[in-house]
Amino acid sequence: MNFDIIKKNYDRGLWNNTMVKMAVVKGVITKEEFKTITGEDYIA
């Protein structure tokens, strides 16, 4: 799993904000990448 796959899945509607947030918690993507994917600031 990486940024590109997560973004693609989010754009297709397969992932929601909570799922993307879990990727940040697990260290797969950064908080900045979360904002790039969702358009929202990461709030823990």
User: H/E series, N to C?
Assistant: HHH
- Overall geometry comes to globular
Helix content: 55-70%
Low-pLDDT parts are: none
Number of domains: 1
Strand tally is 0
Profile the largest sheet: none
Q: DSSP strand (E) fraction?
A: under 5%
Kindly report the average pLDDT value.
97
Query: What does the radius of gyration come to?
Result: 9 Å
Number of helices: 3
Secondary-structure-based class equals mainly alpha
The oligomeric state is single chain
Q: Alpha-carbon distance between the termini?
A: 21 Å
Give a description of the structure.
The chain is mainly α. The protein has one domain (3-38). Helix content is 59%, strand content 0%. It is built from three helices and no strands. α2 packs antiparallel against α3 (31-38). The longest helix has 9 residues, at 3-11. The radius of gyration is 9 Å and the shape is globular. The termini are far apart. The mean pLDDT is 97.
Main attributes?
single chain, 44 residues, 3 helices, mainly alpha
TL;DR?
59% of the residues lie in helices and 0% in strands. With 44 residues, the chain is an all-alpha fold. α2 runs antiparallel to α3.
List the SSEs and their pairings.
Layout: H1 3-11, H2 17-25, H3 31-38
Helix pairs in contact: 2-3
